[in-house]
Design brief:
By secondary structure, this protein is an all-alpha fold. 65% of the residues lie in helices and 0% in strands. α2 packs across α3.
């Protein structure tokens, strides 16, 4: 049988685990806010450019978690043809795929 770790070692391991989780969560949240700010600025530009794939993935992830701001930004980008709608979303749109592709 092996030697059991001391109570102090167990406490430090638990504290490290909790701290690492909290730090990662705050980094993810700040990156998500950064993406939303960048996309918002991009959509408000005089001549907006298409969103990059990583921003679209981040917005979709936020939408799935219930973020209404991300839903608005993704919807607006889709409406302005700066983001391609996901195949799972197409049936939910109030426009048909043909109209979307034709620009109507």
């Amino acid at each position: 049988m092996g030697i059991r770790p001391s109570a102090a070692d167990v406490m430090h391991f638990i504290l490290d685990t909790m701290t690492t989780s909290a730090i990662q969560a705050s980094i993810d949240a700040s990156l998500d806010e950064y993406v939303k700010d960048r996309v918002s600025s991009q959509l408000q530009a005089d001549s907006p450019t298409p969103l990059n794939a990583e921003d679209v993935r981040t917005l979709r992830k936020l939408v799935e978690s219930g973020d209404s701001t991300a839903a608005f930004l993704l919807g607006r980008a889709t409406w302005k043809r700066l983001a391609v709608p996901d195949d799972n979303v197409l049936p939910l749109l109030s426009i048909t795929e043909e109209n979307y592709e034709e620009g109507e």
